[in-house]
Amino acid sequence: MLDITRRKLITLLGGAATWPLAARAQQAERMRCIGVLMNTTAEDPLGQAGSAAFAQGLQQLGWEVGFNVRVDTRWGAGDTERYRKYATELVALAPDVILATANSIVSALQQASRTVPIVFRRDTRSGPSRSLRIRRVRRLCRYPDSSSVA
Q1: Which pLDDT belongs to residue 87?
Q2: Cβ(66)–Cβ(32) under 8 Å?
Q3: CB 78 within 8 Å of CB 53
Q4: Phi/psi at 14 (5° precision)
Q5: Is residue 84 included in any domain, yes or no?
Q6: CATH number of the domain to which 77 belongs
Q7: Which of 46, 78, 90, 126 suits 27 as a labelling partner, its CA being 20 to 30 A distant?
Q8: How many CA atoms lie within 13 A of 95 on its CB side?
Q9: Is 88 a domain residue?
Q10: Total domains, the chain
Q11: Phi, psi (degrees; rounded to nearest 5) at 35
């Protein structure tokens, strides 16, 4: 009977010794970062709706803001100088991808960096579709070296 107890003790000690190695091997995936440069103000209902739709789309695809993705939003308010300033700020944060909501924002972002992927959301106010191209953002977060204009 003492022999069985030794086996159990050896198994228990062996498992305890390897547990920290297994725990280290299962490290959490790093938090992704998405920069967003909007062409409206933070108070604009259209900008708020777009921002909420973007967060909802991310959540539907398994991305939780604050848990596995961080979203840094800047509001350009239609001002080209602000676009340049905020483009530089966002690029300095080293995001995985930046979402732009106007042509002039894309230009400012391209001047600030040629390495950060930019996803462009077309302004479709007159059209039926107002998608923020979440699938493209998800793909680009997986492959941060690719670039796309949606």
Answers
A1: 96
A2: no
A3: no
A4: -65, -45
A5: yes
A6: 3.40.50.2300
A7: 90
A8: 31
A9: yes
A10: 1
A11: -90, 140
User: Which residue is associated with the tokens 């670039």?
Assistant: 147
118-120 and 97-100: which strand pairing? Answer: parallel
- Position with higher pLDDT, 82 vs 146: 82
What type of residue sits at position 145? D
- As a whole number of angstroms, the longest Cα–Cα distance in the chain is 82
Q: Which residues contact 98 (CB under 8 A, 6 or more apart)?
A: 34, 35, 36, 37, 90, 91, 109, 116, 117, 118, 119
Residue 143 is given by DSSP the state S
Token duo for residue 115: 């390495």
Backbone CA torsion sign across 75, 51, 66, 113 = negative
pLDDT digits 0-9 by tens, 91-147: 999 999 999 998 899 999 999 999 999 998 765 554 434 444 444 555 555 544 444
Task: Measure the CA–CA gap between 125 and 15, rounded to whole angstroms.
Answer: 60
**What's the domain range around 52?**
32-142
In a domain, 15, yes or no: no
Rounded distance between C-alpha atoms, residue 53 and residue 123, angstroms = 14
11 in a structural domain? no
CA–CA distance from 115 to each of 2, 46, 92, 100, 118 (Å)? 65, 30, 12, 15, 9
